[in-house]
């Protein structure tokens, strides 16, 4: 930590002041701290304070901060070359990573894949492929879904504030229907009825290219979709020649207890997107789909200058190796069961805990005043996040009403550190609800 001081990086407050002067206010920040170093599930800030990390870079660091094998892979690639542009001079690592992804996505149909940078780019390219294959234009997405912040993916995202405010108009031929949410009274039947109304009132199903769905809504509140719902979407797509795009940017790469959450349901998607955890902190995303679907775009229609960067490809291979070697899918299930057991016990003690839910390690607590869904308690969720930060725990909120605490632990966290963080959540909730 002396090295940080010697560099005169400054205190958190000093850096926040510099940040305010240099960056636009639209770039948010959940916690007013600046990192100096990190290890597995802990971060130390520029003032030397240690933090337990229950955010994992927004579900990116499934393999933890600075996993030795991932660091080693990055260093080795840096010693070889850092960039050629795959479309100019190719490299084997890109091809072998696509081969691994092709094998991993469920279903008997032969697969092909290609790499991009961000989750938003993956989603945009998935829609490009679906449109190229079907020759159609329309896309159906779900309320509460999050698919990115680009102009096109903002249109797909089913939440206005803060993602869409002041940024319209958006791309056309995008339609939203309700996502099932039992707590708030939205049934699967209602979701499917909304799609049928859409077909009757707004868009001919013969002009719909794709339906995009998250198997577990991320920003929407960590709401897992049921097998019956996802199978219903699969059947609907098959009936009308629509591509089923499964967005696994947040729930993929072992976080759900499977490498991909759709594996829990025994369903083969037409196209699947992945990002976040794939790179172990490096910037990479992937689009995987049925081979004939993926071949619909012509040469030069897909790709990008930095897409599939060699260093990111090397770390992605290391991530997949670590997941296999350390059995992180199985560990995600155990971590999630432990969290939901402990947090579920809070429901009897605190009336504001309306629901504890999740899949694999993805775990959420939804707060409502008096436990009543019609009275979302964003104030409690925010106060809890802030109180936990005072006690050294980093958390993030989400949900359509901002009233959901989502826990995004590294899957490599020790159970001792996990319990330390859960203790802080319990103590913080007691503090913010006292009196």
UniProtKB/TrEMBL annotation:
Q: Which family does it belong to?
A: Belongs to the class-III pyridoxal-phosphate-dependent aminotransferase family.
Establish whether keyword Nucleotide-binding is in the entry. Answer: no
Kindly give the NCBIfam families that the UniProt entry links to this protein: GABAtrnsam (TIGR00700)
Report the source organism: Uliginosibacterium paludis
State its cofactor: pyridoxal 5'-phosphate
Task: Give the protein's recorded name.
Answer: 4-aminobutyrate--2-oxoglutarate transaminase
Q: Which Pfam families match?
A: Aminotran_3
Gene3D superfamilies registered for this protein in UniProt: Aspartate Aminotransferase, domain 1, Type I PLP-dependent aspartate aminotransferase-like (Major domain)
- Classification of source organism: Bacteria, Pseudomonadati, Pseudomonadota, Betaproteobacteria, Rhodocyclales
Give the record's keywords alphabetically. Aminotransferase, Pyridoxal phosphate, Transferase
Query: What's the encoding gene here?
Result: gabT
Q: What is its EC number?
A: 2.6.1.19
- Identify the CDD domains for this entry: OAT_like
**InterPro entries in the cross-refs:** 4NH2But_aminotransferase_bac, Aminotrans_3, Aminotrans_3_PPA_site, Class-III_PLP-dep_AT, PyrdxlP-dep_Trfase, PyrdxlP-dep_Trfase_major, PyrdxlP-dep_Trfase_small
GO function term, MF aspect, one: 4-aminobutyrate:2-oxoglutarate transaminase activity
Query: Matching PROSITE patterns, A to Z?
Result: AA_TRANSFER_CLASS_3
Superkingdom is Bacteria
């Amino acid at each position: 930590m002396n090295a940080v001081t010697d560099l005169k990086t400054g205190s958190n407050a000093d850096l926040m002041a510099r940040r305010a002067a240099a960056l636009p206010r639209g770039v948010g920040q959940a916690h007013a701290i600046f990192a100096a170093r990190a290890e597995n599930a802990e971060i130390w800030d520029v003032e030397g304070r240690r933090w337990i990390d229950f955010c994992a870079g927004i579900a990116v660091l499934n393999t933890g901060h600075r996993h030795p094998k991932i660091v080693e892979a990055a260093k080795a690639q840096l010693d070889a070359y850092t960039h050629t542009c795959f479309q100019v001079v190719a490299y084997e690592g890109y091809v072998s990573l696509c081969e691994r992804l092709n094998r991993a996505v469920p279903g008997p149909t032969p697969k092909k894949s290609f790499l991009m940078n961000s989750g938003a780019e993956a989603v945009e390219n998935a829609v490009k492929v679906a449109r190229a294959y079907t020759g159609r234009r329309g896309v159906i997405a779900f309320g509460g879904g999050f698919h990115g912040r680009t102009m096109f993916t903002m249109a797909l995202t089913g939440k206005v504030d803060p993602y869409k405010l002041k940024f319209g108009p958006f791309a056309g031929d995008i339609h939203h229907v309700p996502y099932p949410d039992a707590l708030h009274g939205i049934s699967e039947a209602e979701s499917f009825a909304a799609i049928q109304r859409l077909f009757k009132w707004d868009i001919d199903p013969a002009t719909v290219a794709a339906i995009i769905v998250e198997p577990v809504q991320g920003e929407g509140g960590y709401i897992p979709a049921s097998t019956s719902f996802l199978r219903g979407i699969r059947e609907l797509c098959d009936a009308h020649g629509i591509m089923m795009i499964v967005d696994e940017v947040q729930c993929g790469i072992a976080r759900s207890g499977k490498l991909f959450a759709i594996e829990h349901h025994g369903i083969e998607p037409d196209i699947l997107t992945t990002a976040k955890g794939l790179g172990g902190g490096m910037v990479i995303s992937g689009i995987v789909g049925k081979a004939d679907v993926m071949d619909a775009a012509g040469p030069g229609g897909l790709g990008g200058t930095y897409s599939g960067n060699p260093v990111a490809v090397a770390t992605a291979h290391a991530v997949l190796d670590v997941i296999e070697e350390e059995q992180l899918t199985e560990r995600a299930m155990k971590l999630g069961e432990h969290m939901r057991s402990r947090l579920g016990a809070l429901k009897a003690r605190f009336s504001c805990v309306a629901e504890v839910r999740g899949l694999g390690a993805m775990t959420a607590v939804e707060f409502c005043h008096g436990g009543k869904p019609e009275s979302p308690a964003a104030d409690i969720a925010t106060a809890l996040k802030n109180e936990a930060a005072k006690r050294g725990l980093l958390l993030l909120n989400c949900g359509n009403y901002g009233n959901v605490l989502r826990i995004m632990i590294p899957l490599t966290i020790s159970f001792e550190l996990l319990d330390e963080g859960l203790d802080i959540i319990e103590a913080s909730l007691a503090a913010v609800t006292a009196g």
